[in-house]
Specification:
alpha+beta, Aminopeptidase, 8-stranded mixed beta sheet, 32% helix, 36% strand
């Protein structure tokens, strides 16, 4: 497991799937994700089985917060499309538990994943895509160390309109400089 100040990241288990289906069927949660259609439990189970066959570095991690003597699942995060030769990967995250939105858990998880990506997986560049109509997520990514790179104009069609994707990234040397700054 990967521990932060207020959260921990662990491998996703089959028992987590019903919670993810509930979150991914919430239009407000789904609004910031690549997923745009409702999801069945059968589809989530099929995704889980296929995920287990893939590279362990790309297996999603559950995000949990301390609750009493235990831990409470609030979302998930992962790297995908890892490119070994160029040492880059795309980052993704969902905080599905809306009761804890705007409390910094996403920023903390993004920071832990940067530590993991650069420190454990030896990546050189970690990037993400964020919808232009999601300023809350952009601020969280900036706090974690991501920098704006550019815009894919009107790249996504959602709810009857085209929205742009912003690309943000962190380079390993930027992460190292940030970690060494008091």
């Amino acid at each position: 497991m990967i521990f932060g100040k207020r959260i921990r990241l662990r491998k996703i288990e089959r028992l987590d799937l019903p919670q993810f289906v509930e979150w991914l069927n919430d239009p407000e949660v789904r609004r910031g994700l690549g997923a745009y259609l409702p999801l069945s439990m059968a589809e989530e189970e099929r995704w889980f089985e296929k995920m287990l066959e893939g590279s362990p570095e790309e297996h999603p991690l559950a995000i949990e917060i301390r609750e009493g003597d235990g831990w409470r699942l609030i979302g998930s995060t992962s790297f995908f499309d890892i490119h070994r030769r160029s040492r880059h990967a795309e980052f993704g995250i969902v905080i599905g538990d809306k009761s804890i939105w705007n409390q910094g858990y996403g920023t903390e998880a993004a920071g832990l994943m940067l530590d993991h990506g650069f420190g454990t997986l030896n990546l050189h560049r970690i990037y993400l895509r964020v919808f232009s109509n999601n300023p809350r997520a952009m601020r969280a990514y900036e706090k974690a160390g991501y920098k704006f790179e550019g815009t894919l104009r009107e790249a996504e069609y959602r709810d009857g309109e085209y929205i742009s994707d912003h690309i943000m990234s962190v380079l390993k040397q930027e992460w190292e400089a940030r970690k060494n700054t008091p």
